[in-house]
UniProtKB/TrEMBL annotation:
Luciferase-like domain ranges (all copies): 19-351
Protein name per UniProt: Limonene 1,2-monooxygenase
MF (Gene Ontology): monooxygenase activity; oxidoreductase activity, acting on paired donors, with incorporation or reduction of molecular oxygen
Domain of life of the native organism: Eukaryota
CDD domains to which the protein is assigned, alphabetical: Flavin_utilizing_monoxygenases (cd00347)
Organism whose genome encodes this protein: Geodia barretti (Barrett's horny sponge)
Pfam family, one: Bac_luciferase
SUPFAM superfamilies for the chain: Bacterial luciferase-like (SSF51679)
Transmembrane region(s): none
Keywords of the record: Monooxygenase, Oxidoreductase
Cellular component GO terms held in the UniProt record: cytosol
Length: 384
């Protein structure tokens, strides 16, 4: 299993220059100690949560300061950009890095889409049209296209990528429906949202079977599954587990971007994180049965019986040991992190993306965590 760092570019106080400096320092160290990948998001308008609106520019700098780590665009929001420009910029970055780019794609959320003047209802079709165009641009000398959202008269679009025929293609996925689309199109899954391996296992197995029947949008099938979560590795096991749990809870806290506007989000997170643990069922016994009912029954329960508030309370009461034992977070000392990562590896995960840099984890702790991964954790998975 490959190991990656994922970045929103966060820090405790709003300082764009400092977060960029700290991020660069962390990524250079990650390359030196043997991490396989970096993955940077593209977000806009999320002040204080993400300072990463143009990951390709950050990667252009990192391409000259790193040697082996792969540079994952996680992801390019295709509705925001003309496909010609996407093809040009990703290919140029591929040359700058001498073939170390992975091309993740996605379509963002309504708050950001409307800020760009895009109707969210169009985003799926825009993503699909652009996704069909970019690999064709890379593999065609004189390219033309007549579509619903983009029209390209015959043109030569350069450069072509350094990798032949092009970088691996991925899609950001939070829902099972997207896993199915990824398999049908022959592209890799970037599974965001933090999940217990036990919750993901059936979807990983289904993807493995379905991707065998893919009609790839590009020149080859990328049949990899990468999962994302938060974590930190420190010498002090207890300190790291508590810090990792706090980081996770803050990241998915009320009104944060990944949960804002989503219905029943804490019941969904409880499900992804392995359900209500036994030691909390006693405290919430009269509500747990309802919260754990099948999805089709949840709507009435959560809307009309106060279940949403109860689900949030149970979610907030999940303790660090439960989250770490279930490998929802990768946190603790090196042995604890290795144990958690092996649980993801056991269900067939190809790559684990870990977000260490968050608002609640200081820069010096991130640096310590990267160093400990390099010394103890990465060697454990390199020898597999």
């Amino acid at each position: 299993m490959k190991l990656a760092l994922q970045y929103e570019m966060q820090r405790p106080s709003l300082d764009d220059h400092l977060v960029l400096q700290e991020t660069m320092e962390q990524c250079i160290l990650a390359d030196e100690v043997g991490f396989d990948y970096l993955w940077f998001v593209e977000h806009h308008f999320l002040t204080g949560f993400s300072a990463s609106p143009c990951p390709d520019l950050v990667y252009a700098a990192l391409s000259q300061r790193t040697k082996q780590i792969r540079l994952g665009l996680g992801v390019v929001i295709l509705p925001y950009h003309h496909p010609n420009r996407v093809a040009e910029r990703v290919a140029m970055l591929d040359h700058l890095s001498e073939g170390r780019v992975d091309f993740g794609t996605g379509r963002s959320a309504p708050y950001e889409l409307t800020g760009m003047g895009i109707d969210p209802r169009d985003s799926r079709e825009m993503w699909e049209e652009s996704l069909s165009m970019v690999p064709d641009i890379w593999q065609t000398d004189l390219y033309s296209h007549e579509g619903k959202y983009w029209q390209v008269p015959e043109r030569q679009i350069l450069p072509k990528p350094y990798q032949n025929p092009h970088p691996p293609i991925w899609v950001a996925a939070l829902q099972p429906s997207t896993y199915e689309i990824a398999a049908s199109k022959g592209i890799g899954v970037l599974s965001f949202g933090s999940s217990a391996p036990s919750s993901l296992e059936p979807y990983v197995k289904a993807y493995r079977e379905n991707v065998k029947k893919a009609k790839p949008v590009g020149g080859f099938v990328n049949d990899q599954w990468a999962s994302s979560t938060l974590g930190v590795c420190l010498e002090d096991d207890r300190e790291a587990k508590e810090m990792g749990a706090q980081s996770l809870k803050n990241f998915f806290g009320p009104d944060r971007p990944y949960v804002q506007g989503q219905k029943d989000v804490y019941a969904q997170l409880l499900d992804k994180w392995g359900g209500v643990p036994d030691h909390l069922k006693a405290n919430f016994s009269r509500y747990v049965e309802d919260i754990e009912k099948p999805d089709e029954a949840k709507e009435d329960i959560l809307d009309y019986s106060g279940g949403s508030a109860i689900a949030h309370q149970i979610w907030s009461d999940l303790d660090a040991d439960t989250l770490c034992d279930r490998a929802v977070v990768i946190a603790g000392n090196p042995d604890s992190c290795i144990e958690a990562l092996k649980k993801h590896e056991a269900i067939g995960i190809d790559q684990m993306m870990i977000m260490m840099q968050t608002e609640t984890v200081p820069h010096e702790k991130v640096m310590e965590s990267i160093e400990l991964f390099g010394k103890y954790v990465i060697p454990e998975f390199k020898k597999r």
